[in-house]
Amino acid sequence: MPGQWTRLYASDGFAFDAWVARPDGPLRGAVVVAQEIFGVNSHIRAVTERLAARGFLAIAPDLFARIEPGLDRGYTPDDVAVCRSYKERAETMPEAVLQQVRAAAQWALTQQPCKVGMVGFCWGGLLTWRAAAQLPELSAAVCYYGGGMTSAQERARRPRCPVQAHFGRRDPILPLDGVLAFAQQHPQVQVHLYDADHGFNCEQRASYDDSSAVQAKDRTLAFFDQYLAL
User: 43, 114, 166, 171: which is the annotated catalytic residue?
Assistant: First the structure.
């Protein structure tokens, strides 16, 4: 079944859209997909479709809806510059963004009995790490090169659910020493390192690395199968 938009409401009453992809067969669980800074673009929608094909109800909330609803950008230098400004504005309202993540997780729980996980990329990886520490609705969380999550402030968080994290050894945004410090501080987190750059999972980026992306995907799916199975 092709994905489609649905309307959600945060706990403060704010209305926003989310892209939903449903599995055709038996449900294995639900996964909230947290966007990069480029919005719920074709890459993020493709991630939801792939999760649905694997049996997961996947939902990608528009996490910039309070700033620039419907954002759908690519990966040019101009896109990066514009979208970084949106991220800076969103980071001034972290609780409001978390309300939207929670609304997506709660919506998934109302569809049919299941457990809910979360996966996020870049900024979405950071949001996934924060959500793992704050949202009781989550049963598993997977962070891909979460920008900022290896800082001392973010490392201080304590996740409430099992977490898996994927980082590139050649990522200039997330220096390796910070990643290693994160892994040492959180031995319970499954930290995986790849000989890759930032954004290695996105086939639309120049930094895409197929072997790393496939290995990370297999690990992600196995992790969700382990923790979201009923």
Answer: 171
